[in-house]
Structure formats: structure tokens, C-alpha cells
Amino acid sequence: MHYPIGLLFDLLASSSALPWNITVHFKSFPEKDLLHCPSKDAIEAHFMSCVKEADALKHKSQVINEMQKKDHKQLWMGLQNDRFDQFWAINRKLMEYPAEENGFRYIPFRIYQTTTERPFIQKLFRPVAADGQLHTLGDLLKEVCPSAIAPEDGEKKNQVMIHGIEPMLETPLQWLSEHLSYPDNFLHISIIPQPAD
């Protein structure tokens, strides 16, 4: 329940056929593998905690702190009830930044790998370099997870997936954050072994 379904698909089943078959078990809950969801309120609290964390990275929490409780509720209800207009009316504010800043303060991202025990990698990373150049997805991976990138003369061993697609490493990170972030405002990046087909 604490990972978005699209991320789970990228990590666990992106090479399988669609529709994705899901088996639901009503006995013997795997407590050691999954967080047990005690209530809808717990899911809402987890979601809002992630949104607040992302806003702290992007705007020093200024945007979320200026919102009223009803705005937080509208954001959650829009997501819960699949009402994009209701959700976007609030979430749009979280995706904006002053033009003079050229982007967010830091990019809220998490990198997940199927080949490691570590749940995810998350570090501070600015969307714009000190010289004013936009950082790319490749720049992020070189700094945070260099094993994900194939050497220039080597064979590609991994796929980098976001929302079921493999973006080009030259894609500006700011653009990815604005357009491919999940509803929690994080850019969830999956690194999976290159399929052998």
C-alpha cells in the first residue's frame, strides 16, 4: 500500500502481458513483506506526509503551509475519488515555481532497484547545476546510482523506467519532475535488469 501501483508494475511485472493479473489473499497476510493498512485514514496520512516531504524539498514547505486544511482534503478526495480536476486544482500549486528560479529547490525522487536489499535511494539533488545548466536524468543517475548507466563502450545491462516508459537519459530532470511525478509529487524511478529478448 505504500508504493504506487505503477511503480510496482515497473519493478515487478513490466515485461509481463497486460492486463496485469493480481491475486488477492484474505488469509495469512505477509506482515514481514508488506505494511498492514489499518484504515483509510492511515493511507491518507501516509499520502499527505509524502506530499509534505516533496514540498519541503521543492519549496521549503512554503506552498503546503500556505494551504488550508480544506485544500489538503480536496487534494486527497480528488485522488481518492479519481476526480482529476479536483486534484489538479490544488496539486498544480505544488508543481509551480518562480520563473527566476529555473526550477524547484531540489527534485523529490526515489530510485528503486530490484537487485538490492535497500528499499530505495533518496538524496538531495538540484535540477539546475551551479553553472545554470539543467541537470538531466543521466546526471542524476551518474551521481546517485552510477551502476544503472552503461559505460559508453559497454553493453546496456539496466532499464530505467518511469510510469512504464524508458525516458532518454538526456531528459531534463525538472521536466520529468513536473510531468512524470506520481500524485505524491515524487519522481519514482525504477532500475530493472535489461530484458533478454
Automatic annotation (TrEMBL):
GO terms for biological process: autophagy of mitochondrion; cellular response to nitrogen starvation; piecemeal microautophagy of the nucleus; vacuole organization. Keywords: Autophagy, Cytoplasm, Isopeptide bond, Membrane, Signal, Ubl conjugation. Coiled coil: none annotated. The keyword Lipid metabolism does not apply. Residues 1-17 form the signal peptide. It is found in: Cytoplasm; Preautophagosomal structure membrane. Residues 41-96 form the Autophagy protein ATG5 alpha-helical bundle region domain. It holds the Pfam family ATG5_UblA. Its main location: cytoplasm. GO terms for molecular function: Atg8-family ligase activity. Residues 1-26 form the Autophagy protein ATG5 UblA domain. It is a peripheral membrane protein. Residues 106-191 form the Autophagy protein ATG5 UblB domain. It comes from the Eukaryota. Belongs to the ATG5 family. Forms a conjugate with ATG12. Part of the minor complex composed of 4 sets of ATG12-ATG5 and ATG16L1 (400 kDa); this complex interacts with ATG3 leading to disruption of ATG7 interaction and promotion of ATG8-like proteins lipidation. Forms an 800-kDa complex composed of ATG12-ATG5 and ATG16L2. The ATG12-ATG5 conjugate interacts with RAB33A; this interaction is bridged by ATG16L1 and promotes ATG12-ATG5-ATG16L1 complex recruitment to phagophores. Interacts with TECPR1; the interaction is direct and does not take place when ATG16L1 is associated with the ATG5-ATG12 conjugate. Involved in autophagic vesicle formation. This is Autophagy protein 5. It comes from Ursus maritimus (Polar bear). The lineage of its organism: Eukaryota, Metazoa, Chordata, Craniata, Vertebrata. The gene is ATG5.
